Fold DNA invertase Pin-like site-specific DNA recombinase.
Amino acid sequence: MKAAIVRRVSTTKEVQEESLKNQQGFFEDYVKSMGWDIFDIYTETESGTKFNRKEMNRLIADAKAGRFDIILAKELSRLARNQRLAHEIKDVIETYNIHLITMDGAIDTTSGNTNMFGLYAWIYEQEAQRTSERIKMALTTRAKQGRFKGSIAPYGYELRDGRLFVKEGDTPEIVRLIFQRYIEGKGFDAIARELYESGVPTPSMVAGKSQQTIFWNGSSVRSILENPHYTGNMVQGRESTISVTNKARRTRDENELIVVEATHEPIIASDVFETVQQLIAFNRRRSFTYSEVSSRPHQNVHLFTGIIFCADCGSGFHYKRNSRGYICGRSDKHGEKACSKHRVRENELVELIRSDLQRLAGLFDDTSYYDDVRQKFIKSRTKLEKELQSCQAKIDRINNLKRKALSKYLEEEITKAQYDDYIAGQDVEIRKLQVNKGKIEAAMSTVLDSSALESVREIVASALEFKEISREVINRFIEKIEVKEDGTVRLYYRFAGTSKILNELL
């Protein structure tokens, strides 16, 4: 009789080699004592919950080909902790007249012992699920403590005792370069090509992976650009597996993420990171909305391409070299019947932006004027905060009265009809207050605090440090530009609250 031996360990680490040797020695002695021959040894290192496993697939194929007569395993869990796979193995051995013996005595088809097959498969799957949940809980606890869950640190960092530290060498500067290039207008693929041509080591090379590559690709660049760990905050738990037997991953909602701030030294400033996230989101939306505008910024060679739009039809503007300006893309493509040209020169836009920034800088330098505006923001916000507190206090007071009414009803001081009538009236008042509270909160979200004003002041100062209005300046400070038919230009600044501040200052 020819025997197929299945041996399995949970990892490929060297410490497991001894376990494999011990398993093989045990099976060799057993086969010899039974007077059988060993056909082959199938060594599993993948999880028993996975359905698609290379060695298991080979075992099933050999069984169907009739290459052996019996399968030997330490226990059923060595073959499968997945009921679906366990039952497939059961069907194969029954169909092709192959026996199965597990050394723990649970299964022995040579003596007709197969009744408990399904039960054992279910038990092992449940144990695997519990083990998985325990591991996830431990990793979640680790994440909440601000410790890194993964085994490979983000590019530019190194991992020591579960903490991230900025790595010695060039990789932190490479991360900064990647962010700088994206802000300058280069796309993921263009940045990847530049890094490859410069001989910059890839993330897989730095991590020392067995299957490393010298080629940078756009997805690696994007992964770095979207990784919030570079701001010094630990953001983990962004994905999870569906179950122990289904390894498909789902992206968790933002409110499910585990965020611990200031856990390690940042490589990228928070405002730079947020600017890049806004650019990525904007480029993604633009690629869906305007087919003539690429979502890969390296293809947008002109200063305002992909940022300037028609205020009337919404189309992106096209650059016209002969006039050194931009016209409505729909008009350019379909003629003035579709939309008028809305022509605007590039130098006019540059001067408009420069003028705005210079005027803002001048007003910020006027201390008394700046303080007046700052106090106006503070008073508006303080007034709304007081109104919100008053509204919430009224809601709390009514809820307290409702609790007292319930006590009176339970003490039989009032009838149920009296109680119901009173509660109905109070609920009407609460709904009115909640509507008013929502209006106040909405108003507060549109009122700037003094810190927002100071933030704009710093951003304007940094913008004026640039000697020219370059693509980098545009990407940092301008979200989009709209041009009306009469040539009126409206600038949408990227930093929060700018339009309100401009209305107050200019």
